[in-house]
Request: fold
Amino acid sequence: MQQAFRASILHCLADPGPHASEAAVEYFQDGILLIEDGAVAQLGAADELLPALPENTAVEDLTGKLIVPGFVDCHVHYSQLDIIASYGEQLLDWLNRYAYPAEAQFSDAQHARSVADVFLDELLRNGTTTAMVFATVFPQSVDAIFAAAEERGMRLIAGKVLMDRLCPDELSDSAETGYADSKTLIERWHGKDRLGYAITPRFALTSTDEQLEAAGRLASEYPDTWVHTHLAENQEEVDQIAAQFPWSRSYLDVYDHFSLLRERSVFAHCLHLDAADRALMADKGGAGAFCPTSNLFLGSGLFDLQSMSDAGVKVGLATDVGGGTSISMLRTMSEAYKVLHLQGQSLPASRALYLATLGAASALCLDDAIGNFEPGKEADFVVLDPDGSTMTARRAQSAASIEELMFALIFLGDDRNVAATYIQGQLSPATAQADR
Ligand SMILES: [Zn+2]
Reply:
């Protein structure tokens, strides 16, 4: 079945870089996105494509709105949805005071499913169509998020947290049970529909050597699964890692030692790395998740995008809710701009969009399936409405270019500007509610 959507359409073909390379971006002021069986069939100017469409093709007229690829959130904790914006601690205290008590509730499968439903609908209402998600230590919390994503047709990566030291007893697994439960979940979910499994040690501090070894063994046994963990978020954490693994050259060296640094390994934060770490990460094909709202909120540090890019490390943008303070990728892009600005680095709108779409897809090794509107890719997209709020409507009137309009939407926009989200060409019911 063919469907055509008429609107302004913007997507990235490559990384526009800090100087906003125009060749990396494609824009149609009056464009047509043609979809067939949930995949992109064609993209082009309306005056060229409209006359060539078969007579019975339905054309959804979204003139005045802007279609961009669905946003990709490279690192988020669904179990922390309800502790977002919890006051005033640094990482290690914040985990103990807020995150662990919230995660303990996910032993209850019903609670897990009800949070998973709300969480995914919030993602969709904010234009996020794919995410890499931390569940909790409980296998039933992984079942819940995968089942909820499958019901919505979403492309989603998730995994069970592995954690067997320095954590509350009720949240602790062991090297053996963590390995066995992960294996069962991989067999159950990995590669089913659009779902993928991530082997998910919380971070090196909360796993014994035996557990990290078992995780590395899983990563080798299932090479097309992902590895998802935290790296070098907070200086106190980095110091504790050095004490726990005195033989290691660096924090990243610990993961590398246990065979957890490879293609499809995604590391949240990457704030306190040196040049040797970045070179190693690029060489092994690992990727960094840039979590600006979380890094500012927890006072962790500033992500050095330029050094990561110069070293050839793939980077995607991420909310890191609940350490992060917004589930909106628009808000996350605007905070990324500020983090970089403080370091004398620039982030033009086109590159911010890249980091939230094609760049993030590339960081997750999913750029052959999603991230832009190349023919054949899965048709996940967002319809942004510049008239969604009074402020954006006013600002849009004086925007002289698409770069200027997109920049204003990044800074002023929120879920009111997400008119609709489509998954494989289907309107998401989460965005179709009248009472938004
Ligand atoms: Zn996190």
The pocket of zinc ion is lined by residues 75, 77, 230, 268, 320, 323 (CB under 6 Å).
